[in-house]
Every structure is written in structure tokens, then in C-alpha cells.
Amino acid sequence: MNQNLSQQTAPLFDALGASRTLEAMEIFNALCISFVLSMIIANVYRWTHQGFSYQRSFIHTLVLVCIVIAIMIMAIGNNMARGLGILGAMAFVRFRTPIRDPRDIIFIFCSLAVGVSCGAQVFMVAILGTLFFAATAIFLAWSPFASRREFEGLLRFMLPAESRAQAALPAIFGQYCTTAEMIATREAIQGEVLEYAYQVRLIDPSYKVDLVDAIAKLPDASEVSLVMQRTTVEI
């Protein structure tokens, strides 16, 4: 009876006991590989970043967190007691830094996964996983996948109530816009001038200045303004 109980509890005691001690060269190789792979991840993030919330410290974090996780995994090994101890120590740490972009979280998870792979000495998974992740991130950043390039804007200008320049508007809109719809018009300067508001969609974003110049050159046109709304930009 006692012999069977000892045989059943032996794996548990092995897990709680000392894990295999890594050689210095094994530790050094794991740290070097985690550093190189995390640098690849950080540079891919830097090359493909398109928002306004770029931070140099976040790039450093992607590199350092990979190395730290690799050290933790090597320190834990297959020892359950060490894992529970580190888990308890990490419970006292509060990470309150807000991360606004979900894409940034994915890069952090990738760096964590590479660190775990390097710490567990599974280098092939770490290398191939990093290369595939980097290639996918670059492809998504450079391809038009999931982008909406509509280049919509609000065009405002003023013209006299009886101005003949209104007849030239369809030709101008046809040259620079795919669509142009008048959404509002109101009287200004005691009814002597009308203010027009058009919702326009440009053929090309470089036509912004050309459209404004063409409207401004119309006889008696004044206060021409164009406010663009790019659906591909996030703030």
C-alpha cells in the first residue's frame, strides 16, 4: 500500500524538487536568440507602425520583456514550486500602463511567446514563429487589406446669390471628385451671399489643393475651405 502511494506521488515530488541545472552556454545561447528575435519583432513594429502613439519605450519593452520571460522560464524549468513562487511574486506587481492599440498588445504577446520558447529551449519554434509573424505583419501593413481609402471631405465656400459661377461647379467637381453632394446652403451677409456646403469624395488625395484653388478662382468666390476625413487614420 505504502509502495503504491509512493509511486503515485513520485511525479509530484519530482515536479516540486530541483529541476535540471542548465549549462552556462545553454543559458547564453537562449538569451542571445531571444535578443535577436525580439529585435526582429521590435523593428517590424517600428517599420509597420501607422498611428500617432509611437513610443520609444514601447520598442525597448518588446526587446526586454522577451529576455525577461526567457530568464523566468529557464529559472522555473519543470519545477512547480518555482513556478508558483514566481506567480505569487508577480501578483504583487500592478501594470497600469494603458495600451490603446490592440495591435500593440499582439506584439507584446508575440514577444512573450518568443521568450517562453527560448527559455524552454524550443528554438525552432521561436525562430520560425518570429519569422512568420514578422512576414505577416509586414504583409498586412503594406497591403491594402482592411483599409478604406475613400478620401471624403466637407467643402465650404461662398458665392453671390445670382452668381454665374455656379454653372462652372459641375465641371470642377467632375474633374477632381468622384461624388459631390450639396448637404446645406444658407444665406449670409443679409442674403447677399449664399454659403454652400458640399460633401465630396476626391478621386485622389493629392487633389485637395487643386480643388480648393479651382473653386477660389471662380468669380466672386470667397472663404473656400476643405476639411478632409480620412477613414484610414486613427487618433
If you had to describe this structure to a student in words, what would you say it looks like?
With 235 residues, this protein is α+β, with helices and mostly antiparallel strands. The protein has two domains: 2-142, no CATH class; 152-229, ACT domain (Alpha-Beta Plaits), CATH 3.30.70. 54% of the residues lie in helices and 17% in strands. It is built from eight helices and four strands; from the N terminus they run ααααααβαββαβ. The chain has helices spanning 2-16, 24-48, 56-76, 80-90, 102-119, 123-142, 169-176, 208-216; strands at residues 152-160, 177-188, 193-202, 222-229. It has a four-stranded antiparallel β-sheet. Helix 2 runs antiparallel to helix 3 (56-76) and helix 7 (169-176) packs antiparallel against helix 8 (208-216).
Number of β-strand runs: 4
N→C terminal distance: 68 Å
SS strand fraction: 15-25%
Indicate the low-confidence ranges by residue numbers: none
Give average pLDDT, whole number.
81
Look at the helices and sheets and give the structural class: alpha+beta
**How many helical stretches?**
8
User: Which strand order does the major sheet show?
Assistant: 2-3-1-4
Structurally, the number of domains stands at: 2
How does the overall form come out from the CA principal axes? elongated
- State Rg: 31 Å
The H/E string reads HHHHHHEHEEHE
Major β-sheet profile: 4 strands, antiparallel
Helix percent reads 40-55%
